[in-house]
Amino acid sequence: MESNVDLLQPHVRHLKITRDSALRAVWVEFKYDGRPCFTPELLEDVWVVQRFIRQTVLSGYQQAQNDRLLFQVVASEDKRAFSLGGDLTYFLQLIEAGDREGLRSYAKTCIDIQYATITHYDTPFTTIALVEGEALGGGFEAALSANLLIAEPQARFGFPEISFGMFPGMGALSLLARRVTPSTARKLIMDHRIYTAEELHELGVVDILAAKDKGREAAADYMKRHIGLVTGLQGFQSAVDRVYPVDYEELTDVIELWIESAIHLNDRNKRLMEYFARAQLGRSNSPDKQTTSDIYQFVSS
To answer: What is the DSSP string of 38-64?
Structure first.
């Protein structure tokens, strides 16, 4: 990352926000106090920052500012985990209480965030995801929602939900269908596998495969190369949005199916979900522990 950075407001607890004036970019990094997953508190911070960034970008564009923001990079301060996905402990509480509205509120916040990223805030802007570690479940969905996905070779991706009777309901199928064939999208969701960054790069899911520990440099290099080509880049993104649109109503319909799956989990599936929730906690408490993706792969095999 360039050294010419300054803190971008607003202040939030669960995100590190920096603005790089040289790259005309904002870097948004997850700050995990404990489990590296999307807690309701983290989601709220993301939504606050997204609205702020959108207004900043839109204001600069409308005023034709030469230094207006062009790029956003989302990453994690913890390079071992981009995100382990949804807050499974919270899900279990809502499921046990039969709280459909709580599940709906959580899922809607997720798809609102995803949709804003997919559509680059409905502004001339580029969203980038940088994955240096594990991106599982909702973490994988979050990475897929970016206009560009960069990953280092040690990154791992997967959808473990099917292992405990669920499915990834916050955009996975819609987002994968923009990058791969429908049959490949179904396979990535249903086959109980953890994928390497190299495998997904070969499939076209990962756009740029960076060298180990060089992901941030790869993101910076991409932005440097495209600052002078931004009109074409943003025009192309608009064309992608037109040819491969993601329908917001489709996303909301799918979360209703996800809610019903959650509410009707049997006791065995809920016990497996509890196990995965403990794996999320164990990943944060024991840095040298077996990776969460290894645990998911073992249980799913």
So the answer is: B-HHHHHHHHHHHHHHHHHHHHHHHTT
pLDDT tens digits, one per residue of 135-169: 999 999 999 999 999 999 999 999 999 999 999 99
> 17-70: per-residue pLDDT in tens?
999 999 999 999 999 988 999 999 999 999 999 999 999 998 887 777 788 899
Query: What are the chain's domains?
Result: 5-300 (3.90.226.10)
Return the structure tokens found at 59: 């204001």
Pairing of strands 15-20, 5-7: antiparallel
Instruction: Return the structure tokens found at 254.
Output: 């799918």
What pTM does this model have? 0.92
The tokens for 231 are: 């009109």
CB atoms within 10 A of CB 207: 17
3-state secondary structure of 73: strand
Contact between 38 and 138 (Cβ < 8 Å): yes
Distance, CA of 282 to CA of 103 (rounded, Å): 24
The backbone torsions φ and ψ at residue 157, rounded to the nearest 5 degrees and listed phi first, read -135, 145
Q: How far apart are CA 200 and CA 198, in angstroms?
A: 5
